[in-house]
Amino acid sequence: MRQAHPVPIALTIAGSDSSGGAGIQADLKTFTVLGVYGASVITALTAQNTRGVDAVEAIRPELVVAQLRSVLSDLNVAAVKTGMLATAAIVTAVAAELSRHGAGARPPLIVDPVMVATSGDPLIAGDAVAAIIGDLAPLATLLTPNLAEAAAFLGGTQAESERAAAAQAEALYQLARCPVLLKGGHGTGAAVDLFFDGNELVRFERPRLDTPHTHGTGCVLSAAIAALLARGGGLQPAIAGAKAFVWQGLKSGASLGVGRGRGPVDCLFAIEAPAVGDTASEP
């Protein structure tokens, strides 16, 4: 028998992606590959695929809170990430519930402010943007906006240079009152993400991959950061490890052949597929 030992647990609070490329589904795949037990709180149901989002239905805030309380009352959650929160009421409810746990007792929180799907379809109500900054971000260990999301928070235009992105990362830190990882995946040149925690600006760089198959990139990155924090790592090493994980997933995802549109990141690249005809050995 295997010796019993506690497994790290991470929790995702996000929407469901019916195509499996982003949201809850991508988060749970990422947790599993990185050796973490995944729990989930579903905030919205979406009918979507690699070509777009056909329908969205938000879950009642009361049911979101019920899910969250149920998980946190029983599971020893070591890290939490949020993704699509859909409405201001859900954002406020999640923030209020997490606030019930004091800063010393609350697990690290990664806030991925999912606003728009890879296809360009909106995934959040307009008033929820202010709620993320005002209610949720102050609780966060890290906020992970992309360039467009940072511009939306700041009420400006999207940064077109690394210098402008750095200025926006610092401005967003002041606004959100939490460390910021400004993702450069939607920019040009090398894929540079900028981390600012009020003291130092750190660059995380990878070569840019020429692929349209980027569905779920932000979800996977934030989930990977949460998973690595749940395993006991520090924040900057977790960011570096997560960026490397996403880069390999993008590289592998280019040949997945899933869907007819913008295909998903390959969260499972580290799992070797069994050969056709393989069967499990008898005990």
**CATH H-tier superfamily of the largest domain:** Ribokinase
The biggest beta sheet is recorded as: 6 strands, mixed
Number of helices: 8
Q: What is the terminal separation in angstroms?
A: 13 Å
The spatial strand order of the largest sheet comes to 3-2-1-4-5-6
Coarse structural class: alpha/beta
Rg, nearest Å: 18 Å
* CATH architecture verdict of the largest domain: 3-Layer(aba) Sandwich
Low-confidence stretches: none
SS strand fraction: 15-25%
Mean pLDDT: 91
Shape: globular
CATH level-3 fold name of the largest domain: UDP-N-acetylmuramoyl-L-alanine:D-glutamate ligase
Beta strands, count = 9
Helix content: 25-40%
Tally of structural domains: 2
The CATH class of the largest domain is identified as Alpha Beta
Helix and strand pattern: EHEEHEHEHEHHEEEHH
